[in-house]
């Protein structure tokens, strides 16, 4: 097919040879299947902010660091240059998250290059070499649902141990791929397994005040989806359990999980509370007295 204008520069730079077809058009990007030498890759073209239905909500962009102080000031002011820099930061967030998570062993597409607002990465495929389907397009047996749910909960833990929360994880951005077998080949011996995609809204677990809520929602989405096929999953509480372990510094990739969580009930020291109230009342009375005296 004819290369879209946004991919033409990659052809001119020799990063890709041809565009095979459009794979999908989502809320924040269009994705194309491309060829580079003997490799079939995926090219993700990010839509401009005014063409995206997914908003750069403050929940996601909170505390995202920009190395250039001039860019940071411009973004804070909301100038034209600042909006351009904010757009670049939004796009590079997925690139940064992919490299970080791939290095941590999380099941994500392998990033290859990022050029002119286009992310080149591994094309995730099924057993026939075609683009892998989303979980939403597949039905599961109860056994498969339990297996994939357990795998994805472990991947959420692995992401969190790497300091990342997906922030928008659901059956719509997880692919069911054909994974290599023990011999390392994707043919015989391979099996179907989930691969997590779409990470421009990923947040820093330690630096974002909304990270806990987002992780809870991610895990609840997994529970609700797979609970359609294995109803016993609907009663699990992996989200609170994972976050509690993380906050306590006890979460590792090998930490055993139960899916059960009972929040600790701390006895309230009413005498201490009353003392705090009395102290606050006395401090307020003293402040009012000082103001009256000064007047």
Layout: helices, strands, pairs:
Blueprint: H1 5-12, E1 18-25, E2 29-36, E3 39-46, H2 58-61, H3 69-77, H4 80-103, E4 111-115, E5 118-122, H5 142-161, E6 164-165, E7 174-179, E8 191-196, E9 203-204, H6 211-226, H7 238-247, H8 270-294
Antiparallel strand pairs: 1-2, 2-3, 3-5, 4-5, 6-9, 7-8
Task: Provide the domain count.
Answer: 2
Major sheet details: 5 strands, antiparallel
- Please trace the helix and strand order, writing H or E for each element: HEEEHHHEEHEEEEHHH
Architecture per CATH nomenclature, i.e. the level-2 architecture of the largest domain: Orthogonal Bundle
- Beta-strand content: 15-25%
The count of DSSP E runs of length 2 or more, i.e. the number of strands, is: 9
Task: Supply the number of helical segments.
Answer: 8
CATH class of the largest domain: Mainly Alpha
Low-confidence stretches: 51-56, 70-76, 182-187
Looking at this structure, what is the CATH superfamily of the largest domain?
Answer: Transferase(Phosphotransferase) domain 1
User: How do the strands of the widest beta sheet line up side by side?
Assistant: 1-2-3-5-4
Helix content bin = 25-40%
General form: globular
Radius of gyration: 24 Å
Please characterize this protein's 3D structure.
- With 295 residues, the protein is α+β, with helices and mostly antiparallel strands.
- It has 2 domains: 1-61 and 97-122, Phosphorylase Kinase, domain 1 (2-Layer Sandwich); 124-282, Transferase(Phosphotransferase) domain 1 (Transferase(Phosphotransferase), domain 1, Orthogonal Bundle), CATH 1.10.510.10.
- Helix content is 39%, strand content 17%.
- It contains 8 helices and 9 strands.
- The chain has helices spanning 5-12, 58-61, 69-77, 80-103, 142-161, 211-226, 238-247, 270-294; strands at residues 18-25, 29-36, 39-46, 111-115, 118-122, 164-165, 174-179, 191-196, 203-204.
- The protein has a 5-stranded antiparallel β-sheet, sandwiched between helices. Strands 6-9 form a two-stranded antiparallel ribbon. A two-stranded antiparallel sheet has the order 7-8.
- β4 and β5 form a beta hairpin.
- α3 (69-77) packs across α4.
- It is globular.
- Mean pLDDT is 84; it is low at 51-56, 70-76 and 182-187.
